[in-house]
Fold this protein.
Amino acid sequence: MVDFALTDEQQQLRALAREFAAREIAPKAAHHDQSGEFPREICRKAWDLGLMNTHIPEAYGGPGLGVLDGCLIAEEVAWGCTGIGTAMEANTLAEAPVIVGGSDEQKRRFLTPMTKEFKFAAYCVTEPQAGSDVQGIKTVARKVGDDYLLKGSKMWITNGSVADWYFVVAYTDPAQRYKGMSAFLVPRDTPGIEVGKKEQNLGQRASDTRAITFNDVKVPKANLVGQEGKGFLLAMTAFDHSRPVVSAAAVGLARSAMEHAIRYAGERSTFGVPIHKHQAVAFLIADMAMKIEAARLLVWQSAWKIDRGERNTKEAAFAKAFGADTAMETALNAVQVFGGYGFSREYPVEKLMRDAKVFQIYEGTSQIQRVIIAKEIFERS
Ligand SMILES: Cc1cc2nc3c(=O)[nH]c(=O)nc-3n(C[C@H](O)[C@H](O)[C@H](O)COP(=O)(O)OP(=O)(O)OC[C@H]3O[C@@H](n4cnc5c(N)ncnc54)[C@H](O)[C@@H]3O)c2cc1C
């Protein structure tokens, strides 16, 4: 039987995240957008409440919650501010490959501390010349005795300057292409790591995005995740866990934009009636409501599948592409509903429009999601 009802625990979790977003995030969103200040204290409070690192298994000190649980939190947090949400959620992406492919010892060394102390981690795959085309990365890990020497530059690394450790993908055997990539866990205080300046981004300005350069950084063999040659697979598998969560955040942003549009459409009058009485405006909002609901269903489906232990690559790509496009379209149309005031930085919707754009870019662009969907249709069925 199909059941869309949440359990009592899930409803409580959602209520906790909703209340946190309304009290701690939304009132400070504009400040962090304008200043670009990293929201450390807000994240700390979220960590104290148990709203971060929720997928770390109980055996390693975490709550062992499912991907759907993570999505419920992400939607609410993102409703408050997706820049702050991205700062909170980047750990999920860095931790996922360790949960999937790390050894027991690595999980104790890298995951358990995340549950005992307030810490960040970062996922380092993209490079200045290679994002969608992961095989185009140039970073190499050269074996020297029992260690590897990591050399290369990563780009666009979320939480790059605040992370305690990095999940890094590098070539151990470039001739093997994607089968020659390996993954490493690299503590931030290892000598030879250079952290770049904070990127001045269009939106989600609270989050910290940096270049990270590895100058012959010595990484012990004990920090190789899985075996040599498994790096690409681990990096991609992480997306099956994280894309539903990122897509839930896109839904949260869209919901916020729609709520602002609904409120404004009731307050603003033209030609003697509130603007929602004009069908052209009402239909914009009807489309927002319909697409948000559809996006959430795709998010929940993709999360539900992976929580059941089923492959969800196609469904996660559906959720990511549709969720990101819905966030962008909804925010854009919310600006339209606000008219001239939508264009003003003193009103909330222009920020949502700027913040929405990156959902179509990070964790695989909207084009790449369609490439994945097409591959799943033509090569797997
Ligand atoms: C704010 C932010 C945070 C990020 N955080 C992280 C992070 O924490 N860790 C990390 O590793 N990366 C991170 N990224 C990087 C992000 O994942 C990449 O930017 C993204 O994958 C796109 O890669 P690219 O920028 O190199 O664009 P490109 O790959 O150069 O793509 C350029 C354009 O070409 C299109 N394109 C490329 N190939 C194809 C194709 N085969 N078919 C159709 N269209 C195609 C793309 O869709 C895009 O429109 C972040 C990026 C941003 C902006």
User: Anything to note?
Assistant: The pocket of flavin-adenine dinucleotide is lined by residues 90, 122-126, 131-133, 156-158, 201, 209, 358, 361-362, 364-365, 367-368, 371 (CB under 6 Å). Residues 272 and 278 are 11 Å apart (CA to CA).
